[in-house]
Amino acid sequence: MLxxxxxxxxxCEYESxxxxxxxxxxxxxxxxxxxxxxxxxxxxxxxxxxxxxxxGCGIIPMLMQREKPPHNIYAVDIQPEAIGQLNLGIAKCExxxxxxxxxxxxxxxxxxxxxxxxDLVTCNPPYxxxxxxxxxxxxxxxxxxxxxxxxxxxxxxxAAKLLRYHGRFCLCCRPERLTDVMTAMRANNIEPKRLRFVxxxxxxxxxxxxxEGMTHAKPFLRIEPALYMRSGSEMSAEAAALCHFGE
Length: 247
Fold this sequence. Notes:
Shape: globular
CATH architecture: 3-Layer(aba) Sandwich
Radius of gyration: 17 Å
CATH class: Alpha Beta
Order of helices and strands: EEEHEHEHEEHHEHEEEEEEH
Number of strands: 14
Largest sheet: 9 strands, mixed
Structural class: alpha/beta
CATH superfamily: Vaccinia Virus protein VP39
Distance between the termini: 14 Å
Strand content: 25-35%
C-alpha cells in the first residue's frame, strides 16, 4: 500500500481490488462490507449508464470495473476531498476505467446532468437520521453517517430525476430505516421491487437491507432469501464471493 497526503491533510492509502484496479481510502472516506454487497446486489450490466450518489472514495464504481463494467459511471459526491481520493485511485489504476467523477450537491445535480437517461442509480447513504445516534465532531464523518447534507427523500428525488422510464435505483440501509426508504421511494415514483436482508448468522436479526426500486413501475415487492455473512466460524461462501478483493 502506498501513502499519499490529501489536500485536507488526511493520510490515505491504496487498496488493490485486483485486475490492476485501486481505490484510495482514508480514515474519513473509506468503505465497508456494505459497498461490496450493494455492488453485487444491483446487477449492473455492461451496456448500462450508471450514477453512484454519495460515492465517497468511489469504491462502488471501482468494484463495477472488475467484470463487464458499465458503459459509464457518474461518481457523485458533495465533498471535494472524496472526489480527490477517487481521482487518485483512478490515476493509480493500471488500466482505463469508465468512471466520471463529479463534485456536486445531489439536491441540485450538476450542469449537463443526464436527466432521465440513466439505467441504474446506486447509493450507500448516511444510515442515521440527523437527530439519531452519536454525532462525530469531524464534518466529513458527520456527513457520511448522518443526514446532514441530504435526507433519504433528497436521494430518492435525485435518483428519480436521473433515471429513465423503468430505470432501477439500488441502495443499502439499516433495517430501522426501511419504512423511511420505502416511503421516500414511492413519494418520488420509484416503486420498491426487490428486498434482501443481510444477517451476520442465521440466528441473528438483520443488520442491513438491500433494496431495488424501479421508476413508474407497478406495485409488486419480491423478498429474496436472507444473505448470511457467516457459516459457523467462517465467512459464508456467498459473502466471501461478494466481498473478495481479487488478485
